[in-house]
Amino acid sequence: MSIKNICCIGAGYVGGPTMSVIALKCPDIKVTVVDLNEKRIAAWNDEDVSNLPIYEPGLAEVVQEARGRNLFFSTEVDKAIDEAELIFISVNTPTKTYGVGKGMAADLKYIELCARQIARVATTDKIVVEKSTLPVRTAEALQNILHNTGKGVRFDILSNPEFLAEGTAVQDLLNADRVLIGGENTLGGQKATEALANIYSNWIPEERILRTSVWSSELSKLTANAFLAQRVSSINAMSELCEVTGADVQEVARAIGTDSRIGPKFLKASVGFGGSCFQKDILNLVYIAKSYGLNEVADYWEQVIIMNDHQKRRFAEKIVKTLFNTVSGKKITLLGWAFKKDTNDTRESAAIYVADYLLSEQAEIVIYDPKVSQEQILADLDYLNTRSEAENRALVTVVNNPMEACDNAHAIAIMTEWDEFVNYDWKQIYNQMQKPAFIFDGRAIFVPSEMENIGFEMYTIGLAYSKNI
Ligand SMILES: NC(=O)C1=CN([C@@H]2O[C@H](COP(=O)(O)OP(=O)(O)OC[C@H]3O[C@@H](n4cnc5c(N)ncnc54)[C@H](O)[C@@H]3O)[C@@H](O)[C@H]2O)C=CC1
Ligand SMILES: O=C(O)[C@H]1O[C@H](OP(=O)(O)OP(=O)(O)OC[C@H]2O[C@@H](n3ccc(=O)[nH]c3=O)[C@H](O)[C@@H]2O)[C@H](O)[C@@H](O)[C@@H]1O
């Protein structure tokens, strides 16, 4: 079966880049990405590709090449569903904020709405692909909705989770470690699996296209994120131990990472992991385990989140303690707001929580991030509901110029590892700061001795440097 028409519901951080790369690599397939959010679709259609709603290195070039040829962005959801043979569901699955499972379970209302819309609109057979990250056995619920339309339309449901990381999405999609397809072990299920595999085989080597059951595929996605986040929490736990014992977490990471069983990646101590998925997906995993009565399994994974919350808090506490136990009225500059470099995404960014803590201590916060707008930063702080919007605006200043951000500051905290931060004129910044001039390097981007030679008082995460403050 050769697919000629694809639709993707959800033009977000996954739907947009994923479909752009499919369209790039499969010029004979028409790919339509639809979303209810008109502003987002207008931005995807903006003639100037520097205005796309998502910043990802290399994405603008891909969109430029495929858009209007076989890649389309639209708000006409019904039409795109009706025309497509294969439909990706790539909508958001946030943590529930109400009712049963509040604060833990994944909110599947957007997924269900998509299923109901597909059921209502479809007049021809469809392959429906779960691209969103979903609790194991969600396909069962989709099946129930889709198979009871009474219209005689055949639906095959596949799970095809996405493993891209933001900031490297295009490269991750072009050179995926693997593509995972979960399908039913029936003739129909196998045919659907091969139809999707055929699309990927346009650029992904056959041995990297893994086929599993639907349940294994759904659970593998949650498991992958849990393992990745666990590595970050593990190295962050060691970072605290390093600081009190005189060890250096970067040396420890290098030493253990050379063991081929451990591997060198994802061992960078930080101010805590952020992003829209790690926390959400682990909470979801914990909730699923609890709902089956597996309390030890749930507690085991919950510790990854507890450690991460601790890491964010202890970084903020370190700032207050070092600044002579008070930051009230002091100017503290945060460099970076995105949850990692090379993205404009701020969801669950550690910077939000550190800023919130410092604001509660009455600090004056000045923020600079190369890709995040003032509007977004203030919205992130307002969303926490810790204080009034007016108070946030009175204490927070967002600037477009890093030198201005650091001017007259008592301390600078590195929240995101943007490459440009290392190359600033740090001598000049030092001269413009209050003394002693403190730097809290939450990403270990500096060589501490170089900064100390300029005159800075340095704190580097995970480092018991001789003069570490
Ligand atoms: N952000 C990431 O790096 C990754 C995310 N994922 C998963 O992919 C899914 C999507 O994540 P993101 O793209 O980050 O979310 P997002 O929030 O950026 O995008 C989701 C889009 O779906 C749209 N939408 C919601 N309901 C809709 C409906 N009924 N009809 C049409 N459009 C609708 C929203 O307007 C929004 O634009 C989530 O399940 C997430 O866990 C998986 C891998 C990576
Ligand atoms: O499901 C998802 O949403 C995605 O979640 C992560 O991708 P992402 O969150 O975009 O970015 P990561 O590179 O994983 O970083 C997550 C957070 O961990 C932090 N991190 C990462 C690695 C590390 O060594 N140390 C560290 O602190 C990053 O700074 C960032 O805040 C996974 O890496 C992707 O495979 C997955 O598809």
Notes on the protein architecture:
- The strands form 3 sheets. The chain has a 6-stranded parallel beta sheet with strand order 3-2-1-4-5-6, with helices on both faces.
- By secondary structure, it is α/β, with parallel strands linked by helices.
- Helix 5 (109-121) packs parallel to helix 6 (138-146), helix 11 packs antiparallel against helix 12 and helix 12 packs across helix 13.
- It has 2 domains: 5-212, NAD(P)-binding Rossmann-like Domain (Rossmann fold, 3-Layer(aba) Sandwich); 278-460, 3-Layer(aba) Sandwich (Rossmann fold), CATH 3.40.50.
- The chain has helices at 15-25, 38-44, 59-66, 77-83, 109-121, 138-146, 169-174, 187-200, 214-245, 249-257, 278-291, 295-322, 350-360, 374-384, 389-395, 402-406, 426-432, 448-454; strands at residues 5-9, 30-34, 71-74, 86-89, 126-130, 155-159, 179-182, 209-212, 331-335, 364-368, 396-398, 411-414, 438-441, 457-460.
- Helix 13 (350-360) links the parallel strand 9 and strand 10 (364-368).
- The protein is built from 18 helices and 14 strands.
- The model has no long low-confidence stretch (mean pLDDT 96).
- The radius of gyration is 24 Å and the shape is globular.
